[in-house]
Amino acid sequence: NGLKKYFPIKGGFFNTVVGQVKAIDGISFHIKRGTTMGLVGESGCGKTTTGRAILRLGGEKTAGQVLFNGREVYDIPKNEMNEMRTKMQIIFQDPFSSLSPRLPVGEIIGEAVKEHKLVPMNEYEEYIDKIMDECGLQPFHKGRYPHEFSGGQRQRICIARALALNPEFVVCDEPVSALDVSIQAQVINLLEDLQEKFKLTYLFISHDLSVVEHISDTVGVMYLGNIVEFGDTKDLFANPLHPYTKALFSAIPIPDPEAKMSRIILEGSIPSPANPPSGCKFHTRCKECMKICKNKVPEKKDMGNGHIVYCHLYDDVKGAE
Ligand code: SF4
C-alpha cells in the first residue's frame, strides 16, 4: 500500500548522499489468497525490488505498508521474523547460482527445515523424500550435488527448498527465464500443481508475457517504479488501456502467419530512476502524450471490474469510481 523503496546514491569527496534511486515509487496492489499475480515490465522497472521489498529483504522500506494476512511485515520483531520467513518464500531466477555447490540436495532442501524444527528428527528423512517427490525429484538422488542435475532439475530443487518450509506466499522471480523453452513448461506446470495442492499464493515476476498470461489471475504492469495498470489477466490482455501496456503487449508474437502485426515501437530507453521525468513518467516515450502529462502525475482510475489505470487519457472517461 503506497510502498516506496529508494536507494541512496553516494558520491563526492566525503562519499555523502547526493541523490536517490527511486526503485519503487509508491505502488499499491493486493493478491488474493490462492491466486497468482503476474508482475511485468522492462528490465530495471522495479519488479525484482518489489518482490524483495515485500519479503523485507534488502533493508528498510522508504514509505508505505506491506500487509501479509493483515499484519505489517516491517513491524514484525526480529525474533518473530524467522518464523514469518517460512510463510513467505522466494524462488530466484538463476537455479545455478542460488544453490550451494558444497551441499548435497537433501541438505539444501532440509537445511532450513532443521533450523526451524518444522518436523521431528525421526520424521525428517521421510519428510524430505516426500517434498522431493512432490517436486518431481527422485528421493534416492538426495545425496547428489547440484552440478549433477540439469537446469530444470535444479529449479525443482529450488522449488522443493521453498516448499519444504510449508509457505503460504511465494515470490517467483523470473523462475523459468534461465531455462530452455522445452523445460519451462514443465516447471510452470509444477508450480501450478503445487499451488492447487498446497493453496499457495504467488507473485510471479516475469518479462515473458505469454507465460504471465498463462499462469496469472491478475497482472500488474510496472514502469519506472510505478504500477501503471492492474487488472484481471483476461481483461487486461484483451483490453489493455495504458499506452505502455499496449506497446508491451504488441510485442507478443502471434502464432498465425496470416495475422497482421501492428507492433508499437517504443522510442528511446527507460529513463533513469534517479532522475525520473516529471508528471507521467512515461511521457518521454508516449506517442499520445498531452500537455498535462508533462506536469501532472496521473491519478488512479478504476475502469470497472478492478481494472485500474494511471493515465490522463482516461481523466474524463466515466470509470467505476
Ligand atoms: Fe501517455 Fe499521458 Fe497517458 Fe502518460 S498520462 S501514458 S504520457 S497519455
TrEMBL record:
UniProt keywords, alphabetically: ATP-binding, Nucleotide-binding, Transport
Alphabetical list of SMART domains matching this protein: AAA
Biological-process GO terms, alphabetical: peptide transport; transmembrane transport
InterPro entries: AAA+_ATPase, ABC_transp_ATP-bind, ABC_transporter-like_ATP-bd, ABC_transporter-like_CS, Oligopep_ABC_C, P-loop_NTPase
SUPFAM superfamilies documented for this protein: P-loop containing nucleoside triphosphate hydrolases
Family label: Belongs to the ABC transporter superfamily.
PROSITE patterns assigned to the protein according to its UniProt record, in alphabetical order: ABC_TRANSPORTER_1 (PS00211), ABC_TRANSPORTER_2 (PS50893)
NCBIfam families: oligo_HPY
Protein name, entry field: ABC transporter domain-containing protein
